[in-house]
Structures are given as C-alpha cells and as structure tokens.
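Pipeline run #58 for the internal structure catalog. This entry was flagged by the ingest filter as a single-chain record with no existing model, so it goes straight to prediction. Upstream metadata was stripped on purpose; only the residue string is passed forward. Reviewer on rotation: M.T. Logging verbosity set to normal.
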Amino acid sequence: MYEQYSVIISSLILGTAVGFILASVVTAQFFLFLEFPFRLSFPYSLLFTMYGMATLTTFFAVYRPVAATNKMRIASIVKGFAS
C-alpha cells in the first residue's frame, strides 16, 4: 500500500514542479511580448483539490484488494487460488 502512495506523491510533486516551471516560462514570454509586468497567479485551490482527489482515489483503489488478500491464507495466495 505504501508503494502506491509513494508513486502518487512523487508524480504529484514532479508534475506540479514541471507544470509550475512551464507556466512561469509561458507567462513570462507572453507578458514580455505585450510589455506588461510579469504576474503569475497560481490556482492553489485547484492544486489542493487534485492532491486530495489523488490521495482518496489511491486509498480506495488499493484498500479493497489489499483487504481481500489479507483475509486469504498464504498457501492459497502462493498457489494462485482465489477462494
């Protein structure tokens, strides 16, 4: 279960960093072309909403299979029987 959370958190951090850098560069180029002062407004509410949705989705996607597997006997898991 921790593996999935580490994958989701690392992708959230990397995606946010790349997106923020890309948005900054594009916005700076646009404002430079129009000769306006640079101003970047970051949608924090959208960021936190997406972080929360990703965390909840990961929890619900992982919890049921892990809970079902934890109730099974080790021998049946190794043999490949799902009863």
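catalog note: Residues 2-79 form one domain.
catalog note: The CA atoms of residues 12 and 51 lie 7 Å apart.
status: ready for reviewer M.T.
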